[in-house]
Write a structure and sequence with these properties.
29% of the residues lie in helices and 30% in strands. By secondary structure, the protein is of the alpha/beta class. It holds the Pfam family ADH_N. InterPro entries: ADH-like_C, ADH-like_N, ER, GroES-like_sf, NAD(P)-bd_dom_sf, Zn-ADH-like_protein. This is Enoyl reductase (ER) domain-containing protein.
């Protein structure tokens, strides 16, 4: 006979012989837009083409923040569990699943944009991006790679086909994608990189990456400084994650025939561009969203990036890690601009 001194433990546990099967898991739940809380949830079993992931680490992205606040283009019905970039182990599989087995280590991107901020996550093998994870790469590195590095790679891969030694300008106020873009530009595409941000402490962190120059666009004249640094030619590629007036200035930092890639709007301001200005500058402008690409293409890119990390070509930088219980503090710190760089939530902590 097994006695439970803790009634809650009895309620949350099914006893089968000598085995204990947890019937509940914990998750961060958005009960109303802008409100997130730590909850106990009843377990679900994977259906025909689904797998259940034992989540080890989850990446926190600007899209998550906007989804939590109800300002993202994907707007799940409340209540929901946010988080779509995760790494962990296959815990169980549906009857129709052939490719994956229990115990497989995987990186996952959820097409729905939800479910990751939890100890367990149901994954759809037909819709979600699932990539095998080598034992040589830890879960935290894996959870920091897919979005930041995948998005940056899409922006930089065209440059790689044209030339090495290109001049690249990376503009950032949050750092989540900036460090990935700098890492790829330096170590994979052999570019000369300048970085710009709005705060000296953030610039100190960017200097640690070995960029050739940093620019405080709040205190310095961005266009003039970039032009001086490139002998008045301008950069070949600019990567903007800020939006607003910074994006507008970035157009004039790019040489005629160069490219400007918009990877996000952390300022909260979505910029507009005058078509006449594009005729004048001859700059190509593209928006980059990893999620717009086919599942197979994203799996190819993420798998390739995981391989580069496995070969130690690249090295992810993580700014902060939070437990699932501290999800509210995590959201507050990001909203208050206290964190600059990739943030992770580790459900097991």
């Amino acid at each position: 006979m097994i006695l439970f001194k803790n009634p809650k433990l009895f309620q949350s546990t099914l006893v089968t012989g000598s085995r204990f099967i947890n019937r509940y898991y914990h998750a961060a739940v958005v009960s109303d837009y802008g409100k997130i809380e730590y909850r106990e949830m009843k377990n679900n079993s994977p259906r025909e083409d689904e797998i259940l992931i034992d989540v080890e680490s989850v990446g926190v992205n600007p899209a998550d923040m906007r989804m939590i606040n109800g300002t993202y283009h994907l707007k799940p019905r409340v209540p929901f569990t946010p988080g779509f970039e995760l790494a962990g182990n296959v815990k169980s599989i549906g009857k129709g699943v052939k490719k994956w087995k229990e115990g497989d280590r995987v990186v996952v991107l959820r097409s729905s944009g939800t479910g990751g901020f939890a100890e367990d996550c149901i994954v759809d093998t037909n819709a979600d991006v699932i990539v095998p994870l080598p034992f040589s790469i830890d879960y935290e590195t894996a959870a920091a790679v897919s979005i930041a590095y995948g998005t940056s790679y899409l922006a930089l891969e065209k440059m790689a086909k044209n030339r090495e030694g290109a001049n690249v300008l990376v503009l950032s106020s949050r750092g989540m994608i900036a460090f990935a873009a700098i890492d790829l530009a330096h170590n994979l595409f052999k570019a000369n990189v300048m970085a710009a941000s709005d705060d000296e402490q953030r610039l100190d962190k960017l200097r640690e990456t070995g960029v050739s120059r940093t620019i405080n666009y709040q205190k310095e004249k961005l266009i003039e400084t970039v032009r001086k640094s490139t002998m008045n030619h301008g950069v070949d590629v600019a990567i903007d994650t800020v939006g607003g007036s910074v994006f507008t200035q970035a157009v004039d930092c790019v040489r005629p025939g160069g490219s400007l890639f918009s990877l996000g709007f952390t300022s909260g301001e979505i910029p507009t561009i005058n078509l006449l200005d594009l005729h004048r500058s001859q700059v190509s402008i593209s928006g980059v969203w990893l999620g717009a690409h086919p599942k197979q293409e994203i799996e190819r890119i993420v798998g390739m990036l995981i391989g580069l990390f496995d070969q130690q070509f690249l090295q992810a930088r993580v700014e902060a890690k939070f437990s699932l219980k501290d999800v509210q503090k995590c959201m507050e710190d990001i909203n208050n601009n206290k964190l600059f760089g990739k943030v992770l939530i580790n459900p097991k902590d």
